[in-house]
Amino acid sequence: MSPPPERSSTGASYPAEFSSEERTILLKLAHAAIATAAAGEYFSAEPPSAHLAEPRGVFTTIHVSGKLRGCVGYPAPIAPLYRAVAETAQAAAFEDSRFPPLNVEEIPGLVVSLSVLSRLEPIRAEQIEIGRHGLVISRANQRGLLLPQVPVEHGWDRTTFLEQTCKKAGLPGDAWREGATIEAFTAEVFGDSLA
């Protein structure tokens, strides 16, 4: 079965890397990791396939009753994808400092979405496509990351996206014009209602 087309936040269609089956496997892994951690047990899984064992960056986002309850990710490919999904799912559910940990009653109703990141590539400001590219802006030891869907959700143009990514890094908003490194990635986004 060929992978379903990936749609960017602007509606443009791009080839999808992950098949419906692979998406389902990864989402089930995320749910199982959260449920296992909620029960106080250790979660482990075998690599589902060679493709899902490739190191990839990934962000896991959790909503409960339509409200954001956690989002944690690995921007760099530091772990096999299947393991990174399990680890970021548990962290989003129980360790995102912006929210209280999920309680057992919330777990049956949670909705998970995954953003699997491509490798970072240098990019010039004028090449950035809103809805397609996520950004990492860095200078010295300061680094900020925003996912591709963020500027679309907030109605930002390219300049505002660059400025907000600088601010996320703790840099002045114009640091992208003043020598900060700009890198981009794409993200294949899918979730419980999008798989």
Q: Could you describe the 3D structure shown?
A:
The chain is α+β, with helices and mostly antiparallel strands and 195 residues long. The protein has two domains: 19-117, Glycoprotein, Type 4 Pilin, CATH 3.30.700; 121-187, Dna Ligase, domain 1 (2-Layer Sandwich), CATH 3.30.1490.150. It has four helices and ten strands. It has helices at 20-38, 81-94, 149-154, 158-168, and strands spanning 6-7, 13-14, 57-64, 67-74, 110-117, 121-122, 134-139, 142-146, 181-185, 187-191. The protein has a four-stranded antiparallel beta sheet, covered by helices on one side. A hairpin with a 2-residue loop joins β7 and β8 (142-146). α1 (20-38) packs across α2 (81-94). The chain is globular. Mean pLDDT is 89; it is low at 1-13.
Number of domains: 2
In sequence order, what are the helices and strands, one letter per element? EEHEEHEEEEHHEE
Instruction: Bin the strand percentage.
Output: 25-35%
Runs in which pLDDT lies below 50 for 5 or more consecutive residues are: 1-13
SS content category: alpha+beta
Helix content: 25-40%
